[in-house]
Amino acid sequence: MALIPVTILTGFLGAGKTTLLNRVLQESHGQRIAVIENEFGEENIDNEILVREGQEQIVQMSNGCICCTIREDLRSTLQELLDKRRSGQLAFDRVIIETTGLADPGPVIQTFFMDDEMAENFMVDSVITLVDAKHAQQQLNDRQEARRQVGFADQIFLSKTDLISPQEKAALIHRLKHINPRAAMEEAHFGQVPLHRVLDLKGFNLNAKLDIDPDLLSGPEHGHHHDHEHEHDHGHCGHDHAHGEHCSHPHHHHHHDDDVKSFVFRAVRPFDPALLEDFLGAIVNVYGPRMLRYKGVLHMKGVQRKVIFQGVHQLMGSDLGPVWGEGEVRESKMVFIGIDLPRDILIQGLEQSLTS
């Protein structure tokens, strides 16, 4: 039986992975794609942005794609997909894994070579890395994960190039080529890239990856296996949550991310659009450099549709999402990922931005 091709989609927080993935899923390519989402923390807002239907772990989408949200180890999720495929419960031709923005791609690649069953059923087609042109230089300076994401790439897409000067773009491309001279590189505006630049690249070269990381296939004792040594952080609900609703949402943080924390804010009362805009504008002015990623699905006063809100550092924006479903609880849910964020100030300001 032919091996199932796997595309690993990586890139630092806010680079545009979900946007690109959405574009691929909405294309009329006639392919059945199983998508594995591996987000930072357990509160997977990307799943709502991406799937927008149902709460199941595996969701069959209307165009034949399947969205599967990781709740456990990557290997067990792949095994579950294989089992469902063999039993005829699911039919898919390929897998795309969207990694968390804080992920080192090494352990993901490792999964397909360290385990016989994975190696016998899957083939890594390519590692695709999105690079946020606006913030890449700082991220490459500060974060080893960002450098490794570039180093492992077979294809690099530059997002947000319209936000930098031609000189800055040239300097960034020079630096990326220095890190990874063999990866193809092109720009991606809002995820609009030709499908043939994403799927069936046959670009993965294990020997080249071993040049980057000689210990790639040496097993978990080299610190690449990321299932343990978690910290715990707890999310926050607005004070207006339903009686009996549990407020805390534990978030697992890998030991190499100990300077990065996330928390979730939830509220049933709608936001006042003007108050929220003023508060968030003030917050990003002061704390923007430390705010790696923030996003959410918002319930706004006077708006009948969900508002999809996303930001990275000082850049933020929002779009209208789908209409709230009949009988669906209209609840805002926001996740903030950053370095030493002023949690109490954020929570207080968000609560004060709710309608009274």
TrEMBL record:
Transmembrane segments: none annotated. SMART domains: CobW_C. It catalyses: GTP + H2O = GDP + phosphate + H(+). Pfam families: cobW (PF02492), CobW_C (PF07683). The keyword Glycoprotein does not apply. GO terms for molecular function: hydrolase activity; nucleotide binding. GO terms for cellular component: cytoplasm. Residues 221-248 have a biased composition (Basic and acidic residues). InterPro entries: CobW-likC_sf, CobW-like_C, CobW/HypB/UreG_nucleotide-bd, P-loop_NTPase, Zinc-reg_GTPase_activator. Residues 260-354 form the CobW C-terminal domain. Keywords: Chaperone, Hydrolase, Nucleotide-binding. Coiled coil: none annotated. Residues 217-255 are annotated as: Disordered. Belongs to the SIMIBI class G3E GTPase family. ZNG1 subfamily. Zinc chaperone that directly transfers zinc cofactor to target proteins, thereby activating them. Zinc is transferred from the CXCC motif in the GTPase domain to the zinc binding site in target proteins in a process requiring GTP hydrolysis. This is GTP-binding protein. It comes from Allofranklinella schreckenbergeri.
